[in-house]
Amino acid sequence: MMKATARAHTNIALVKYWGKKDPTLMLPQTDSLSLTLDRFYTTTSVEFDPTSAADQIQIDQAPAAPNVAQRVSQFLDLVRPQGCFARVASVNNVPMAAGLASSASAFAALAAAASWAQGLHPSRTELSRLARRGSGSATRSIFGGLVEWHAGHDDQSSFAEPIQEHVDFGLEMLAILLDTRQKKIGSRRGMQHVVATSPYYPTWREVVAHDMAAMKLAIAAQDIDQIGHLAQTNALRMHALNLAADPGFTYFNAATLKAMETIDHLRETGVSCYYTMDAGPNVKVIYDRRDRETILTALTPQFGADHLVVAKPGPGVEKLTDER
Ligand code: PMV
User: Domain named Diphosphomevalonate decarboxylase-like N-terminal: which ranges (predicted)?
Assistant: First the structure.
């Protein structure tokens, strides 16, 4: 029996990844940059059992849906000893599939637990490459704080690297939970459709190259206002790709638009705050922690305290137990 447990935190991209150039190796079209969050994470145990005849996969204390179980088994095939099945138990402290990047924390934790359960000691770069094969954004969740994913051109060259693991200059994110149901269009399908049909895609590659450079300068200057401005602009341009696809689509719903309007209005009244959205309707607010109370006070009447979750920069993947 070989068992290990890992915990990994979600990350939210400030410069988004939206499109693959190699769907098998999960090589992205562009670089991307994210903040790992302390508040949302996945804890996953993997136990290889040579006597078992099939994988047993539990997510949040229930058997995984067949499509999810298949994705986990295919991922395990990348690392497991031949013919050795596993018991996987994964608990999410993040609403699944609602654009809060549960697949990032899930596959980062699974990559680490599956490796450690075999007594392997991969470097974090190696874990980052492996996590990438489960979900692109998981590449970045191996590391804490501000993280850059180098798109690369093959398996070796596509991995993440921390820009600043301990973020101590006040950068925070607040999630506005508007709809925690499963999204209708998964990120895999959404981005594939966009690469194939959105006429703005070539421009997006140029946008990201510019935003990566500008974002790194803003981080070096610890300029939260500029980080927020660049992140909001980048997010809107990513979502513009979806609207311009054929057929066009969007992850926004009416509540998303209302939240965007509220944040824009708050900023116009002098509070430095910006928004970003991923493959779901929820909105994440980017701000300096000194403005946290002002922002919470402004948002609570509209969204309710239960729907506002403050997140600080979080750590990289951690080993919780090591039973061998
Ligand atoms: O890792 P995936 O396949 O869930 O894609 C994530 C894509 C975005 O969250 C929208 C952007 C990003 O860079 O995380």
Answer: 8-160
Kindly report the pTM of this predicted structure. 0.96
For residue 279, give the ligand 1 atom closest to its CA.
10
**Pocket of ligand 1 contains residue 208 by CB under 6 Å:** no
Task: Please work out whether the CB of residue 107 comes within 6 Å of at least one atom of ligand 1.
Answer: no
Measure the CA–CA gap between 140 and 143, rounded to whole angstroms: 6
CB 43 within 8 Å of CB 93: yes
Q: Would you say residue 100 has pLDDT above 80?
A: no
Q: Is 35 in the pocket of ligand 1 (CB under 6 A)?
A: no
What single string gives the DSSP state of each residue in 54-105? S-EEEETTEEPPHHHHHHHHHHHHTTSPTT-EEEEEEEEES-TTSSS-HHHH
Tell me the domain boundaries of the chain.
1-324
Which of 15, 17, 191 gets mutated to test ligand 1 (max ligand atoms within 8 A of its CB)?
17
Task: Return d(Cα 275, Cα 281) in angstroms, integer.
Answer: 12
| Ligand 1 proximity of 137 Cβ (cutoff 6 Å) | yes
* Residues 297-318: tens digit of each pLDDT: 999 999 999 899 999 999 999 9
Residue 322 CA, ligand 1 centroid: distance in Å: 30
Helix, coil or strand: residue 231: helix
Burial class (CB in 10 A: 0-12, 13-18, 19+), 51: exposed
The CATH number of 1-324 is 3.30.230.10
Whether the pLDDT of residue 115 is over 60: the answer is yes
